[in-house]
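Form 7-S
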Amino acid sequence: MRNKQFKTLLLILLHLAAITSCNSMTETILNYVEREETCSSWDVSHIGTGSLGGFFSEDDIWKIYAALRQKYPSYISEKIMIGETVQKRNIYGYFIGYDYETEDMNIVLVDALHHAREWVTLSMIVQITVEAMKTLNRCRHPFFENNRLFIVPIVNVDSFHFMCQSYHSDKWDQASQIRKNRRPAAHAICSQYADGVDLNRNYDIKFDFPVGASREECSDDYRGPKAFSEPETRAMRDLLDKFPRISSALNFHSYANLWIRPYSYNNVENNEIGRAHV
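Output:
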C-alpha cells in the first residue's frame, strides 16, 4: 500500500477508534445500531462500555458482533475460524466491506490482543466495527470501494478468556497482567501467570535477534522455542497465506504510546511505507 493510501487508512481507523466516555453497554449497543447517522458524523460517544470494569470482554465483543451481523448482514461477514489456540479454543475473524466476498478486492488486516493484558485494544476494535457499519449503511465511502477489512478481535484467546474469568476473583490482580499465551513451560518452573509464549515475539522475522525478546521461559517476552511454535501465530501466518490480497496490517497494542512501522529491529527507513504523520 502506497504512502498516501496508508496515511488515509490510518486516519480513518484512528478516527473511528477514538476512545470516548460512554454509558453502559447494555442500553447503548443495540440502541446505537438503530440510530440514524450521516457519513460525516463519526460519532462514537454512544457505543457504551464493557463488562470488564468498563473494558470489553470476550463475551461483549461477540454479542456486539452478533447484533451487528443481524442488523447489517450485507456489510459484515459470518465469523471465520482462522485457527485454534494452545487450549483448543477457536480464533475468529470477520470481513467488513461493501463486497466483502469479492476475492479481487484489497484486504486490510486489523487485529488486537496479542497481549491479553492490553484490554483497551478491544475497545478500538469494537468502535472501528460499529462505526464502519454505520458508515457503510449510510454512504459509499471511497475507502471501502476498493478495500475491505478483516478483523481479528482477539488473537490471544486463551489468556484473555482466563483473564475475563478471573474478574472479581482473588486471581484478578495477577491474571489481569498476563501477557503471553497459556503454553505450559517445558524446561522451567513458572507460576500460572508466567507460563506461556509472547505471541508478538513468535513470528519468523529476526526470530533470533539478540535484543527485544528473551530465551527464558518465565520471562514476559519469552519468544518460544522456535518461530511459529505457537498455534496462534501459525493461525495468523496461515490467514495471510489464505488471503493473498491482504495488502497491509494494523496490530493494535496499548504500550508506550508508540506508532511502530516494520521493520523496527533496526533504524532503516522503510521506503514502501514511508512516514505517516498524524
